[in-house]
């Protein structure tokens, strides 16, 4: 590659394509100079996602994309696709790499997101995975998805959800949840800067409720150094 983009690339690539001189320096572009040293300003760039149009994937490419990411309820029955409803995350957990590139939480316009979904469905996609760092409760988005012939998967924080919103999530077509719980103890979650206001029992009840509405629910745990193996196994059996 001739250059590298530091941070999010969409509008930087447009600026690069419009350059009339290779000597023009953009704030978020770096390259190796003749001495093999890194040159450029290397300012981390964040895109205004509200300005991004709906993506349009070639139908031939989608037909070859048979993978359904993080889906375990049944075998794929058609192509899979990916959609981004939001970018970034309002939390700053110690283990997450999002601070380096996709930090601030930003939602894309609802009509743009649903337009992307409609185009994917029209081209035969049967399952969509939302690549959002954190899929947040959004009544209008879920109601829009409920009207469309597609199922989907998400990654989320279960403590942001309520039983009624989990019900709507299931009605909207969600078949896969990857929930970042990280630790079964309040101390463990605190050490990871989760800023979680719910108790382990409250989180567990939400996970159990979600499993009644969504075929596959996974609660991710990290080695928080304070979760005993016997306690983890006991918790999993719930």
TrEMBL record:
> What is the required cofactor set for this protein?
[4Fe-4S] cluster
Q: Which GO terms describe its cellular component?
A: cytosol
Listed InterPro entries: BchE-like (IPR051198), rSAM (IPR007197), rSAM_horseshoe (IPR023404), rSAM_sf (IPR058240)
**Radical SAM core domain spans which residues?**
84-215
* UniProt keyword Iron-sulfur, yes or no: yes
The protein's matches in Pfam families, at most eight in alphabetical order, are given as: Radical_SAM (PF04055)
UniProt entry keywords in alphabetical sequence: Iron, Iron-sulfur, Metal-binding, S-adenosyl-L-methionine
Q: Name one GO molecular function term.
A: metal ion binding
Q: Does the keyword Flavoprotein apply?
A: no
Q: Which Gene3D superfamilies match?
A: tm_1862 like domain (3.80.30.20)
Q: What is this protein called?
A: Radical SAM core domain-containing protein
């Amino acid at each position: 590659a001739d250059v590298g983009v530091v941070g999010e690339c969409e509008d930087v690539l447009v600026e690069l394509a419009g350059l009339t001189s290779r000597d023009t320096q953009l704030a978020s572009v770096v390259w190796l100079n003749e001495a093999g040293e890194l040159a450029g300003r290397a300012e981390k760039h964040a895109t205004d996602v509200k300005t991004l149009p709906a993506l349009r994937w070639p139908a031939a490419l989608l037909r070859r994309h048979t993978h359904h990411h993080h889906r375990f309820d049944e075998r794929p029955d058609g192509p899979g696709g990916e959609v981004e409803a939001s970018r970034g995350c309002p939390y700053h957990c110690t283990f997450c790499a999002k601070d380096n590139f996709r930090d601030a939480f930003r939602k894309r316009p609802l009509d743009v997101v649903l337009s992307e979904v409609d185009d994917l469905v029209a081209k035969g996609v049967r399952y969509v995975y939302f690549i959002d760092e954190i899929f947040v409760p959004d009544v209008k988005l879920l109601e829009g998805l409920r009207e469309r012939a597609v199922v989907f998967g998400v990654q989320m924080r279960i403590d942001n959800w309520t039983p009624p919103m989990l019900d709507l999530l299931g009605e909207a077509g969600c078949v896969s949840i990857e929930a970042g719980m990280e630790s079964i103890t309040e101390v463990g979650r605190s050490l990871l800067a989760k800023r979680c206001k719910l108790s382990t029992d409250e989180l567990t009840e939400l996970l159990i409720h979600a499993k009644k509405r969504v075929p596959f629910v996974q609660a991710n745990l990290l080695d928080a150094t304070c979760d005993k193996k016997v306690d983890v196994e006991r918790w999993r059996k719930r």
